[in-house]
Amino acid sequence: ALSFWITFVALLMVYQSFFIGGGPGSSWTFYPPLSVEGQPEMSLDVMILGLHTVGIGSLLGAINFMVTVQNMRSIAVTLDQISMFVWTSYLTSFLLVLSV
């Protein structure tokens, strides 16, 4: 539940940044040099903070899913015996955590 609320607040921050000081005008990168040169307002800062916070929420959701899979399966069932959907979701969550 924490990852959902972090993501929700972060997306509100991203949405709010469109209305602060004319919005972020940094093309699709959001990082220097375009973000440094022409942004005197704080809209780009709010956008970057919001996008980083969305990433934190996604990471917490992946950890939550991995812990849930480990705790909810039976001891007699090994990881190669669980359903394909759960296994691939677990693998995707693991790769997301590994990428950080």
Automatic annotation (TrEMBL):
Pfam family, one: COX1
Membrane topology label: Multi-pass membrane protein
Keyword check for Amino-acid biosynthesis: no
Any single GO BP term: respiratory electron transport chain
GO cellular component annotations of the record: mitochondrial inner membrane
Enzyme Commission identifier(s): 7.1.1.9
GO molecular function ontology, one term from the record: metal ion binding
Membrane-traversing stretches: 46-67, 79-98
Family: Belongs to the heme-copper respiratory oxidase family.
Protein name: Cytochrome c oxidase subunit 1
Source organism of the structure: Onchocercidae sp. 09MF22 ECB-2014
